[in-house]
Amino acid sequence: MPAKPLQFYLDAIEQADLPGVEALRVAWLGRNGTLTDALRQLASLEPEHRRQVGQELNRLKQAVEQHLAQRQQQLAADALRLRLASEAVDLSLPGEPVAVGHPHPLALIQDRLVSIFVAMGFAVAVGPEVEDDWHNFEALNFPHDHPARDMQDSFSLAAGGWLLRTHTSPVQIRAMQLSAPRPLRIIAPGRVYRRDDDATHATSFHQIEALVIDQAVSMAHLKATVATFARTLFGQDVPLRFRPSYFPFTEPSAELDVGCLFCQQAGCALCKMSGWLEVLGSGMVHPKVLTAGGYDPEQVSGFAFGVGIERLAMLYYQIPDVRLLLEGDLRFLSQF
Ligand code: DAH
To answer: Which of 195, 200, 247, 257 to mutate to test the pocket of ligand 1 (most atoms within 8 A of CB)?
Structure first.
């Protein structure tokens, strides 16, 4: 009978380390282990013996299994406790830095513009990006043959009469319809769409529209407002130029140029050697537009202007290609 008394096994288990426990398990309970063998040999015993020896052997085997498992658990727990004690965590150490995102340069510029105008007393208005022909063109006094109405410039929707707005100016009409005949002073930032695609034009870009309507609003108010805005953004000393222009919805119309920030007006490719960069379109609201919005042009007057946000961002951050602002390349974006 090769099995030994229980105490023999317990002593050996007590002495074993972690790999030792596993070695004992194999030596006793593995396929060719001594206890496995002893159990196998039960078959050759006489029946009256077999029952009693078998019971004892099985009890022994169970006790050994249980003690092996206990010892293994205890050794593993000891090892873990030891490791944790030697790898003590210093809670006063600074944490791992977490990568945090930040606003897109276009959002930064738009926020700056909005806060400049809000400080001047403007309210923020919004309008839909899917517009009807009347708000986008008709009410803004675009003649039927005006090139901007051409399918080349705008995205028409399959549903008749709808298009993706080509500018934020239709918000002028919507704001007027909500406010007439009361005075109005709003800006309207938002996305606009055109069928353009090159280094300085994208199919989708952003504008901020501004509109002021009140009694006796004059060109002087317009000039002072855009000059204040440009100087707040680009600095008090930035050279400014007001240049006559044409828009169907303003009369007279003017554009604001700032001295080229790339070449300090010495002349470069970006300002086409002129020393000036165009920043916004503006003018006194056309009487027909006031009427379309529900105002009486005999009672009130107004000024309006529209700023391209991508363009301003390019000037402000000296970015040479508008597509950099639209691609989402982190090598570019993480510089802001
Ligand atoms: N809507 C014009 C455009 O997208 C910009 C503009 C010009 C807006 C003159 C105005 C304005 O409000 O008075 O080109």
So the answer is: 247
pLDDT tens for each residue of 14-61: 999 999 999 999 999 999 999 999 999 988 988 888 888 999 999 999
Query: For residue range 100-141, what is the model confidence (pLDDT) as tens digits?
Result: 888 999 999 999 999 999 999 999 999 999 999 999 999 999
Measuring from atom 2 of ligand 1, which residue has the nearest CA?
Answer: 306
Q: How far apart are CA 235 and CA 272, in angstroms?
A: 23
SS3 content of the chain, % helix, strand, coil (to 5): 45, 20, 35
- Ligand 1: residue of 140, 163, 167, 251 to mutate (most ligand atoms within 8 A of CB) is 167
Q: How far apart are CA 246 and CA 170, in angstroms?
A: 17
As a whole number of angstroms, the distance between CA 167 and CA 284 comes to 17
CA distance 295 to 76: 85
Q: Are strands 162-164 and 130-132 parallel, antiparallel or unpaired?
A: antiparallel
Is residue 290 over pLDDT 50? yes
Predicted local distance difference test score (pLDDT) of residue 315: 87
| The length of the chain, given as a count of residues | 336
Residue 156 and residue 76: Cα distance in Å, rounded? 72
Query: Which residues have C-beta atoms less than 6 Å from ligand 1?
Result: 167, 169, 209, 247, 250, 281-283, 304-306
Which alpha helices (DSSP H) does 211-293 contain, by range?
A: 219-234, 287-293
Sign of the CA dihedral 30, 33, 35, 41? positive
Q: Which CATH number fits domain 105-333: 3.40.50.620, 3.40.50.2300, 3.30.930.10, 3.40.50.720?
A: 3.30.930.10
Start-end of H helices in 42-159: 47-86, 105-119, 133-136
Structure tokens at 73: 């658990």
CA atoms within 13 A on the CB side of 252: 11
